[in-house]
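Notes from hallway chat w/ T.B., transcribed later so I don't forget. T.B. wanted the structure written out for a chain they're using in a teaching module, and asked if we could keep both sequence and structure tokens in one place. Agreed to drop them here.
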Amino acid sequence: MLAFQLFVEVDSLGALNLYSTSADAFDQEAENIGTGVAAHASLALANAQKQGQLYEAVASRDLIGQAKGILMERHKINEHDAFLLLTKVSSNTNRKLREIAEEFVRTGSLPGTITD
């Protein structure tokens, strides 16, 4: 077995493990090649994770913006007060702000509040 830790800076991303059914199957050249492959795999994996996080952040921002806009129009309040209302509901219900915004945009009701 030949194992390589996949990491970028200090974050461990996993491992690249190579197995063989033969004893002493991996020599120094295999280790050198594996080190290079592991380095490239680490960068690719870190990049994919970062891209996923950025996509999630943009989606969350859009949802929160939609929820704020609905609140602003419905209650004739400013952007700051709409955001405060969302964060208050998030805190009171112990749920993520993104979840609150998503449910509000989908249903038109803020979770944990009484509607007329």
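Follow-up for T.B.: The CA atoms of residues 89 and 112 lie 7 Å apart. Might be a good example for the class.
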